[in-house]
Specification:
Helix content: 40-55%
Shape: elongated
Order of helices and strands: EHHHEEEEEEHHHHEHE
Structural class: alpha+beta
Radius of gyration: 25 Å
Number of strands: 9
Number of helices: 8
Length: 332
């Protein structure tokens, strides 16, 4: 079996030296479970701060412009509890999505000793990401912002300053859901407040002056409408990805690199954590995913040369300007 070096963006070599494992330092000792993960990206940090600011601005307007000045105490108490609970869950979900390891592949594990320990059989290959010097498992992709390969990476979201991957997709879904709910709740309250102020004197329906009240309400209305549309679309997209077991990147690859996938109720349970319960909506519970073996998905089977050619050429079409994967092939 002979391999031709005619691949445009990805190269294949039968020699293990092409992987250059000697240039990879030994992988760092894995930290304890639950170690905080944080991406030091200026744009992502700024977007996360803006997210919190907008939620806190909505809190300020809802409480100090609409609810506290209201004479209907039952209305104020009920809506205040509901809105603050949803806002708390939204911010908690945001923190969990931002500070949870999305499924990063161990960095620097493409060492000679580790590659030899995989004991490749004829027809088996491993991919090495030259950017983070790690062996890339199946369905993993390199993120240029996180500078790591992420298992089942869907996309990198600057609003949570993190990738959305295998371990934190639940928190991202909850974040979009709770933001959409508080946006809808805020829009409804703004509508009722405008109707109430039109019927009565504007000076009595708010502790602020009428012009200030109108400006604050219009800004809140614009913010809530914008976020309602955006987060509703993201929520629907993420739920669809979970149900079909197909990430956003894999959906983009579908036309050039078809992949067999079969969504099931089991994939939903794995993403949200067991059988349906209130814990699905709790950002403080972890998805009940099984312990991932160190070598899971690292070794891939290629049945023929044509399969290798198809895999390489279709991958290069999609990732022309992105990560170049080195491939080690054990020939028969």
């Amino acid at each position: 079996m002979m391999l031709t070096p005619n691949h445009h963006f990805r190269d294949i070599e039968r020699k293990p030296e092409y992987l250059q494992p000697e240039k990879c330092s030994p992988p760092p000792f894995p930290g304890p479970a639950g170690t905080m993960w944080f991406i030091r990206d200026g744009c992502g940090i700024a977007c996360a701060i803006v997210t919190w600011f907008l939620v806190l601005y909505a809190e300020f307007v809802v409480l100090f412009v609409m609810l506290i000045p209201s004479r209907d105490y039952v209305y104020s108490i009920i809506n205040g509890i509901v809105f603050n609970l949803l806002a708390f869950l939204a911010l908690a979900s945001h923190c969990r999505a931002m500070l949870t390891d999305p499924g990063a592949v161990p960095k620097g594990n493409a060492t000679k000793e580790f590659i030899e320990s995989l004991q490749l059989k004829p027809g088996q290959v491993v991919y090495k990401c030259p950017k983070c010097c790690s062996i890339k498992p199946d369905r993993a992709h390199h993120c240029s912002v996180c500078k790591r390969c992420i298992r089942k990476m869907d996309h990198h979201c600057p609003w949570v300053n993190n990738c959305v991957g295998e371990n934190n997709q639940k928190y991202f879904v909850l974040f979009t859901m709770y933001i959409a709910l508080i946006s809808l709740h805020a829009l409804i309250m703004v509508g009722f407040h405008f109707l109430h102020c039109f019927e009565e004197d504007w000076t009595k329906c708010s502790s602020f002056s009428p012009p200030t009240t109108v400006i604050l309400l219009i800004l809140l209305c614009f913010e809530a409408l914008l976020f309602l549309i955006f987060t509703s679309v993201m929520f629907g997209t993420q739920v669809h990805s979970i149900c079909t077991d197909e990430t956003g990147i894999e959906r983009l690859q579908r036309e050039t690199q078809p992949r067999e996938h079969s969504g099931s109720w089991k994939s939903v349970q794995e993403a949200f954590g067991g059988d349906f319960s209130l814990n699905w909506f709790n950002p403080f519970t972890r998805p009940c995913q099984p312990e991932i073996p160190v070598d899971k998905g690292l070794v891939r089977q290629v049945s023929s040369l044509s399969d290798m050619d198809n895999m390489e050429t279709t991958g290069s079409q999609l990732e022309e300007t992105k990560d170049r994967d080195s491939v080690e092939v054990l020939d028969e």
